[in-house]
Amino acid sequence: MSLIQSCPSLSLVLLILSVPSLGEFEINQSPYKIIVQEGGSVQITCSFTIQGEPVGVYLQRRLTEKVTYIQNNGDKFFDRNHTEVFGNVRNFTVTLHWLQKNESDLYMCDGTIRIPSSTPKSLIPIRGSGTLVIITDGIYNGSFSRNLLEDSQTKCSRNDSSAWMIYVFIVLVVIILILIGVFIFLAKTTQTAFKHCYKPKKKANQNIVYEDMSYSLRRNTGSNPTYYLAS
């Protein structure tokens, strides 16, 4: 029995270690910042430049409120009116019309991609760099932009930290399971070898010869003693 067969968790950790770091998976998103007057329109473009099969991508505000969703089969779902989408899931542009001041926010492309090189195929979360949309009433306030950007970046960093903590926890659990599996495998192997080496040998069959002493009682006869073979 091989080590991988005796410890199935080993294949899982090899799969995790073979997947590239999450930092390599990012959606190209542009522009970085848009300032538009109330009632205007903005366009946000999201595109993939990495290998893999996109499953679907959301355009959402601050990672919570979804605006639209694009699937790999071309279906589109809208959670906001006055929204248009052009392109496919690998490269698309979202146009938001009739924007209001309360819609000033950080808009991000967030989705999943399927990695073809792994078996089974793994789903990896991916995210764009974000587009800061600022809707004004004709007077641009720079401090509002900075506060909004800082708040959005703080929330993003918290989400990234949580994702990495979960990832590290899973890896630690898998490593512990592997160590337990290796220990059990070595214990069984040692036990089997010990039994094989110190197995008691069977005693060889011994033939015992019994002499018939009855001839000593036969004093008047000259017969030879009779021998019996007992097994």
From TrEMBL:
Q: Which domain of life is it from?
A: Eukaryota
Q: Which GO terms describe its biological process?
A: adaptive immune response
User: What sections of the protein cross the membrane?
Assistant: 164-186
Q: Could you confirm whether the keyword Disulfide bond appears in this record?
A: no
Kindly give the SUPFAM superfamilies that the UniProt entry links to this protein.
Immunoglobulin (SSF48726)
Kindly give the InterPro entries that the UniProt entry links to this protein. CD7, Ig-like_dom_sf, Ig-like_fold, Ig_V-set
Pfam families tied to this protein: V-set
Mind telling me what this protein is named?
T-cell antigen CD7-like isoform X2
This chain's source organism reads Geotrypetes seraphini (Gaboon caecilian)
